[in-house]
């Protein structure tokens, strides 16, 4: 009996020491991460502790659906190129992204409604902070020019996202700003059923010589993507989900 109590005491003593050591380790870790100047190891630990805001990027159309087409140029190819460049730019700034598609392959059947529903489903189940869809525009009269941004403007955060992107893209020398369009005047599935602040950017018109020439050049696509990424980054900061010191 006494032997058993002695052993219990020893186990209790051992547990106390382990707990104390754990507390010391946690305190040292916190001190290392938060009090000492930032260093590569503390950055890695901070990255692990701090959850980064995720952004859903949606390249319009894809696979069976080419989108609009003009002089042999397919919308789906331009939207994919720009969307991937936005993603690369955000990742370079340490902002993680997820794509509804990152190649010409789509994971859903060749059905337009199901296609849109899948994109919304990816967004609504992603746990992300923002959704950005990228398209190019077309008119029946073939005389359109410039970019426009569609958004549910009744939602304050969504409107701010649209404004932040517009403010950056408009600084590009080539492009006409057609403004922010209220999604409610012409409901768009990927915005209408989206639970995140969501915008759809019509990057330009394939039928416009100026727009099309611009949108087909890789270096211009990168320029365009950087401005979109700036607008996204500023919105994440406005929302308070991204620290101001993120590169
Ligand atoms: Zn489109």
UniProtKB/TrEMBL annotation:
Keyword field contains Membrane: yes
Q: Extract one GO cellular component term from the record.
A: outer membrane-bounded periplasmic space
Q: Which CDD domains match?
A: MurNAc-LAA
Molecular function GO terms recorded: N-acetylmuramoyl-L-alanine amidase activity
Q: Which residues form the signal peptide?
A: none
Keywords linked to the UniProt accession: Hydrolase, Membrane, Transmembrane, Transmembrane helix
Entry keyword annotation includes Transmembrane helix:
yes
Record-annotated membrane-spanning stretches? 14-36
Note the InterPro entries from the entry: MurNAc-LAA_cat, N-acetylmuramoyl_amidase_3
GO:BP terms for this protein? peptidoglycan catabolic process
Residue ranges of the MurNAc-LAA domain? 120-233
Domain of life the protein comes from:
Bacteria
PANTHER family from the xrefs?
N-ACETYLMURAMOYL-L-ALANINE AMIDASE, N-ACETYLMURAMOYL-L-ALANINE AMIDASE AMIC
- Which protein is depicted? MurNAc-LAA domain-containing protein
The scientific name of the source species is Amedibacterium intestinale
